[in-house]
Amino acid sequence: MSEPDAPLPLLDYAIISEPFPLYATTGTVDDPATALHIVVSNGGSDTVYCREIVFSLPEGDLAQSLVEADAGDGQAPGWDVKRLQPGTQTALPSGDYARFQATPKGDDKKKTGVPVDASGLVITLENLKISSLPGTARIEIREVATTDTNKWPENPRFKKLEITKFPAPKIPAMAVSDFTAKSLEVEAGTSVTLTWNGPSTLDYTVSHGGSSHQVGKNHEYSTKIDRDTTFQLSYVTGETTRYQTTTVTVTNPKLTGLEVDGDVTVTGATGVQGLTVGGDLTANGNVTAVTNDKIFRIRELRGPYGESLNVNSTVSVLKDNSVNIAGDTTVNGDLTANGNVTAVVSGKIFRIRDLRGPYGENLGIDSTVEVKSGNDLTVGGNKVIRNSDTIGLRNNHYSSYGRWLYASSLVTDNRRETPVWDKDERVGGSGWEVVRDS
Predict the structure, then answer these.
(1) How far apart are CA 206 and CA 371, in angstroms?
(2) Measured by CB atoms within 10 angstroms of the end CB, which terminus of the chain is less buried, N or C?
(3) What residues contact residue 205 under an 8 Å CB cut-off, 6+ apart?
(4) Cα distance between residue 200 and residue 355, in whole Å
C-alpha cells in the first residue's frame, strides 16, 4: 500500500539493525534474535507534538519481506510500544504486516500528545523473526503529530524507510564470544568450568597444559587445575581456525618443578612438595620444619659468617647415632650422659676438676689407675703411700714422747733393737721402704 498524497512526517526517522548489518536468516538455531533501533528526532525549529506513531513491517517469505512472522516486542523511554493484533481499530495498511504502535505513557498524553524536542526519541523493536531471502524491505511509518495542539491532522503523515537484508555469511552471524571461567580465581585442586557463546554448528576444542580436549558442539568444559592455567578455545569457520583464550589464577599453586634464575621473595607461607636448590638459599625470616616423621637433612650446620651457631632447644641424638666434634667443645651448664662416655684416643687429655660418683653412692673405678710421674695422689689432703715409696715412722703416743724410728746396727740374740731418735728430728737418708705384698 502506498499513500502518495499523505504529507511527510514532521519528525525525522532513521533506522539501524542489531546485529548490523542485517542478515537474512538461515533457519537454524544459530540465527540471532534481531532488533531494530528507530531514531526519531526533530530537525526543525518548531516544537512538534506527537501522540502516535505506527510502524508496519512487511511480513512474508519474499525478498521484500522484512519479517517472516508477526512477532516481537517494543520499548522506548516514556512511551508505550505494543504490537498491534489484526483487527485493531487504527489506521493500518492492507496486506501482511507486523505492526507496532508507539504512544506516550498516560491517558491524557495519548490525547494531547507530547513534545518531541532536540533530545529526540529512540524506539526499539526487538525479538523480530527476520525473513530468509536477501532483499530490501520498506518499513511504513504513520505519524500523528502537529505543531499546534489545537489543530490535529485528520489522517496520519506517512513515509517509508528502506532496510536491506544481506545474505548470511559463511561465518555464522553470531560470532563466538564470552569465553571465560565461572570463577577466574580458585584454589589448587578445584574444578574449573569454562563457558562461551557461539553457534551450535561449530565443533570446539579446549587446550591447556599441552593437551587438547574435543568438546564437540557443547558450550561448556570442566577440569581441575593446580596452578595458574591459560585455556585456549579453538574452532574452524570456513578454512580458518580461530582462537580465544582466558586465564584462571590459582591462589595456592602446586608446582611439579621450578627453576628461578634470579631472586625469589616469599612474603607469606609457601607449601612445596619437593624443592631442590642448586645454588645458595638465603632465608631472612624463620625456617620451620616441625612436621612429625619428616626429616630435615643438613651436611654442615654453621652459624652466620664470623659468628657462633646458637642452638636454643634441647638436642636429642637418636639411638644408634653419634655426635662427632672435630674441634673444642665448651659446655657452660651441666652435661649428663645416660650412656657410656669414652675418651681413649692416644695422646689426648680428659681433664676433670672433681670426679664424683652418683648422688649418695661411691665412685666405682673398674680399671687400674696409673698416676703419671711428677703427680701425686691424696686423700682428704693427705698423700697416699705408694709401692716403693720411702717413709719415715714416728711414735705419736705422747706428744712429748714421739720420736722418729730408725734402724739400729745393734744386734742382741739375733734381734735388732728398734731405737728412736732422742730428739724430734730425723737423720737424713734414714727411712723405711713400703712394699706391697700383692
Answers:
(1) 89
(2) C
(3) 212, 213, 214, 215, 233, 234, 235
(4) 94
Q: Are 222 and 157 in contact (CB under 8 A)?
A: no
Distance CA 333, CA 291 (A): 30
Calpha distance 190→181 (Å, rounded): 12
* Secondary structure (DSSP) of 283-314: -SS------TT-----S----STTSPPP--S-
Asked whether the CA dihedral 95, 166, 9, 86 is positive or negative, the reply is positive
The DSSP bridge partners found for residue 195 are 180, 220
Q: Alpha-carbon distance 347 to 353, whole Å?
A: 19
Burial category of 3 from C-beta neighbours within 10 Å (exposed 0-12, middle 13-18, buried 19 and up)? middle
CA gap 360, 426 in Å, rounded: 43
Round the CA-based radius of gyration of the chain to a whole number and report it.
56
297-319 per-position pLDDT tens digit? 888 888 888 898 888 988 888 88
Report d(CA 7, CA 154) in Å as an integer. Answer: 12
More confident residue, 156 or 3: 156
Alpha-carbon distance of 414 to 401, in angstroms, equals 28
- 88-124 pLDDT, tens per residue? 555 555 568 999 999 999 998 988 999 998 888 999 9
Single out the residue of 102, 66, 96, 57 nearest to residue 82, CA to CA: 102
| Amino acid making up residue 51 | R
What ranges make up the beta strands (E) of 150-239? 157-165, 177-181, 185-186, 190-197, 204-208, 211-216, 220-225, 229-237
Output the nine-digit C-alpha cell for 429: 737418708
